[in-house]
Input
Amino acid sequence: MDTESYVLDVVEVIEETADARSVVLRIPEELAETFTYKPGQFLTVAIPSDQTGIAARCYSLSSAPCEGRHAITVKRTVDGYASNWVCDNLKAGSTLRVLPPNGIFTPKTIDDDFLLFGGGSGITPVISIAKTALATGTGQVVLFYANRDQDSVIFARDLAELQAAHPDRFTVVHWLESVQGLPNQEILKTFAAHFDTFTAFVCGPGPFMKAATGALKELGFPRERRHQEKFVSLGGNPFGDVEEMRAAEQTIAEADDHEDTDPPAVTGPVSVEVELDGQQYSFDDYAGDRPLLDFLESKGVPAPYSCREGNCSACACVVLEGDLRMLNNDVLDEADLADGIRLVCQSLPLTEKVRISYNG
Ligand SMILES: Cc1cc2nc3c(=O)[nH]c(=O)nc-3n(C[C@H](O)[C@H](O)[C@H](O)COP(=O)(O)OP(=O)(O)OC[C@H]3O[C@@H](n4cnc5c(N)ncnc54)[C@H](O)[C@@H]3O)c2cc1C
Output
């Protein structure tokens, strides 16, 4: 069984800065629903590789749903494979294989006041949220945008135009490392303190995210008003044959189990209840011997996922009853875990009944 991927036409490639390109994709009429997205979500793309066949990478949609377009923006990573391939090879008329939009870095209510932190290429999901909030929401939008220098500011003109169009609702603060040095936690805290009732979204390089989320935590932003997206490269290939991947995961899980000090998962039968897209599913024959995502897929549940490795948040759910433990987790922090959020692709049951929701 192949993971459902789609080959899309590239309509345009836009040189945003010396080392960042936006790639605009054409969505055929019949795929419009499949490719419906929320601001802040990402696409997973398949980059051809003569070494591995495919290198799978996630790229946030920098366009906004209300613009009626689908664009990703890719910044070259030094010595990176996929980002340089995209910047060097894609042009109008090329094709790109992708998985549909996914991810949980998206506002629950677009009428909130938003405090956005973007660092470098981390602007991509953040500008999508800003554009959507300004076009369809009612609140204030404040963006703190950090870059190395003036020439590396992606979307400088788009942001200036948005400011001109919404002078009373949109504030952008550009922070240039070449002029002001690195923005540290204290600086970000002083800034964020003026907006402590806003809903915050943070995306950027590791140290920037650490400083921004640290500042928000210090200011007492509650978990539900503090969101972050980590830009990491996927190690696996969600485009491949799912059965092959399961076999590989099983081997990895078995290898991991030797050193695993976490509580053992129950070995079934486990009863599972799932809320997904307004539908309820329940099963009482989950043996707990494989990740919950695999079990749900075997039952025909259209559960979301992307990397299948615990590297992204596409499969995240909230545990409403019982508990799950994860074999691997590269994205959720302590606060997420305390809120009952788990990555379904990595989850094994810890209790004989588990009730989860993908709704929020
Ligand atoms: C949710 C999410 C959203 C993201 N959004 C964005 C975004 O909007 N914009 C953006 O720029 N980035 C984004 N990223 C980051 C992006 O996915 C990549 O991590 C980034 O582009 C770096 O990838 P890279 O392959 O260039 O670099 P690396 O991953 O550092 O490349 C090196 C890796 O490639 C492997 N490699 C080397 N040569 C080959 C080869 N020939 N074949 C196969 N593998 C090879 C190496 O083994 C090594 O593992 C996002 C990440 C996530 C998780």
In short: The first strand starts at residue 6 and ends at 17. The longest helix spans residues 242-259.
